[in-house]
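Subject: for your reference before the review

Hello V.,

The reviewers asked for a structural picture of the protein, and I figured it would be easier to keep everything in one thread rather than splitting it across files. Below is the amino acid sequence we used in the manuscript, unchanged from the supplementary table.
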Amino acid sequence: MHVLVVHNRYASAQPSGENKVVDQEVALLREAGHRVEVFERRSDDIAARSLLSKAALPLLVPWNPAVRSELAARLRTERPDVVHVHNVFPLLSPAVLAACADADVPAVATLHNYTQVCPPGTLQRDGRPCTECVGSAPLPAVRHGCYRGSRLATVPLAVSLSVNRRRWWSGVERFFCLSAAQRDVLVRAGMPAERLAVKHNFVPEPGTCRVGDGEHVLYLGRLAEVKGVRLLMTAWDEIAASGGVGVPLVIAGTGPLEPEVTAWAAGRDDVRYVGLYDPEQCRQAIARSVAVVAPSTWLEAFGLVVVEAMAAGVPTVAAGHGAFVELVEDGVTGLLHRPGEPASLASCIRRIAAEPARNREMGRAARRRYEKGFSPAVGLERLVEEYRTAIAGRSALARGEDTRAGRGDGDSR
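And here is what came back from the structure prediction:
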């Protein structure tokens, strides 16, 4: 199969789960013998642009005509079987869909977040769930400055959502939702259910699994409010005040809350802030964990770090909402805490650290869950199956057939 992957890479200064997923899928397909090319832009390149070019960038967020022309020409030359779209913000834009239509190549798209119905893609405002823009014009997002706390910065995203909504819904053969929870939200928002498939991300074999009981509790990810970092700090202070759990908390990552985390961890024996780990350091840190903590306050569409912990035979303490509810079987592969409640998070961390034998069994169950649902073999099978479904759907459409019956309910499992 010949696949062209389209992706706007996020800035390298912060860890990006999307960049990681794209790279892993490209490598997986190539290792299986498929031909995979990449059409990409890099947000890192924005810094080198002229002031005039930077000033004009917001105008290109809803529509970049140069990208349409360049991609269409490449598609006509290379004739891939399918185009797989990931992130298009800010340098690509939904013009990539017009390019696919120009060249008559079917497109699929992975929905890594909720940007189809929410300008910042988080379904959250001021630390609380928010669905004001779902199913309507995204004016509330502009009014509240939902993207980076800025009304001006939110405008291009809101405009893009408004003017390109129908283009997305009609120009993509299959949308890949990362969880059933995400799909349910998008269906309720009015997206075409017959085009929404559930395709979980896979995680490569880590090459190392936990041996023993672990030596720390680990938070691994972006240091941001929506990831529950402040919630974790409050919960850990409560744990420390009651005597601790016998192992330190290790926080690895970077992000807007880094100064706050650095100051909070300074001078403490029970907390270590280690900065940004490289991939090998991440794997080793996970494999040495008593548990991995994922306390996100927003409705995660997936939860890559949870599955990475599963692969290493490590249980997780995660917020009991969004995709975590289907990734973590409460009491079996980890524990779910009440979202947004530091006391509940603290209680779960204490429980998972207090019973080593039960913790080890949870780790073994987590590893079995990974092998069954999130291994490379499973990921490859589902990815290729969805590509074939998209190609068949486009072919049937070209023949004038009604493809709705063949699309089913959108769940590929």
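For the response letter, the relevant points are probably these. Residues 403-413 have pLDDT under 50 and may be disordered. The chain has two domains: 2-202+379-407, 216-373.

Happy to draft the paragraph if you're swamped.

O.
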